[in-house]
Design a protein that fits this description.
By secondary structure, the protein is of the alpha+beta class.
Length: 583
Amino acid sequence: MHPRSSRLQGYSSVLAVALVVILSALINDANLCRAADTGAGSLIFILDASGSMAAQVQGKAKIDVAKEVLSTLIKDLPTSASVGLVAYGHRQKGDCNDVQELSSLKPVNKEELINAIGGIHPKGMTPITYSVQKVAEGLRGIEGETAIILVSDGEETCKGDPCALVRELKLSGIKFVMHVIGFDVNEKQKAQLACIAKAGGGTYFAARNAAEFRLAARKVVEKTEPSTGTLTVKAVSYAKPMRGYCDIYRDQGQENANRAKIAEGWLEGGTRTFPLLPGAYEVRVTDRENPAKPGVSFQGVEIESGKDTEKVADFSGGSLMIKVLRNHAPSRAYCSIYRKVETEDQGKEKITEGWSDADATGFKLAPGRYDVVVENREDANKPAVTLQGIAMEAGKTTEKVVEFSGGTLMVKALRNKEPFRAYAMVYRAAVDEDKEAEKVTEGWVELPGTAFNFTPGVYELIVENQEDPAKPTMNFQGLAIEEGKVLEKVADFSGGALRVSALRNGKPFSARLYVDNAAQGADKKKERVVNDYTGTDGRIYKLVPGVYNVTVVNTEDAGRPTLSFAAITVEAGKTVEKVADFS
């Protein structure tokens, strides 16, 4: 081998070993590798790209040696590392402000760092002081200690005093340690670089020969005692191991979307052990083979030096108990359970459905978040309550109580004083008289009567006698349904009948019709018994014997002309006919 080639390899090896030793010490150092998102467990390279780095050592530029060694080392960095990269002297000649952050301090992105290193070309000055100041100021306020690694082939050329600056920065409370690698430097240059390392509480490495470097490396290794514990994470489903994916974060006590991961990986065979430095962590295990990707999280997991901590993510599912009350008494409702979606465009995915009391142990659900629609089908208008974002955890029972209130409308029908079968239609009372009422339910009134359950409110009831050819009806307006109470209405078709029709320009048409009980005495109030339209052919209404006022409104002409018929007497077994002629 050519002696110049051999010497070049020696320089490369020394530089590589120096960096390996420093990185090994840093990755294992308890003060360094705690959390990439807080600056602890972090390292920042400052790479000299001044003009002198273009000089060759045994036929190869020093910058190329440095780039090659750095790139190789970055490939081998653990994913838990947080790395930054700063270079100086690579953009302009003679510029003492030529310092650039090529990659900010963040979880290691190996491809980004290697590409940034590959784009560095030596040109200018050696502003060591300014570069160190810029890096250190960016660390002010960060809790953990950050390692700054300066790789340089010379001393300051911009009139600064880097050794004094580092001493001041340390005294100011910024938490960092400064290591320096002097690459092919003379004694004068070495003195300044060694001073920087000493002031920064770090180590100076002279990359001149392999023997000296190995000796220095051994001393660094002896001083760097790893202080780690282990976290064993297991995933099971119904007592059987399952393959899950584990993400480990430094526990910050709150949600942080930008937090950095400390470690991650598959739990092959359902288990994996992660070496971690002492501290508190958040651990999340996800079933990525399930399309819904359910997860199990552990907060505040404490890791102690020399001890193993075990966490088991159980995907066997939990139980959701829905207890339903109606008027404070146990009841039942129909439940539809959907997987919780974060955005509306994702669409709902129904997981299961059924009656709340179908299973005494509740609904079995995998860990995750759910929305539950609880529908009270006991009441005619089927009120529903939605429970949003219910968090289900493996092996745990979650209980939710849903309370409904309502009353009962008891409907009976009489014909010739005997109970008979009629047809009932119930509407929610319209707030605006010009709007049609909303039908809530309908059905047969069986003998001796039928109970309809409703939520509290005001309703209208129409009972139709379908046994008589004319199909007369009886109307009940303003029925107030109250919680826990029964309101009874009897449609008595034993009385008389009122037939009302309307003419406009001599032709039948449909007009608005109101029929009220005429008040008898000062202590009696009017009761509206019909609120309807006459229809083109007119309508027949069965009414209990009594006195009524009839109002017919022409809604087709401007001004809504009105005709009234006062004090109409309806007698049992007789029909009274009124024609409202708007001709």
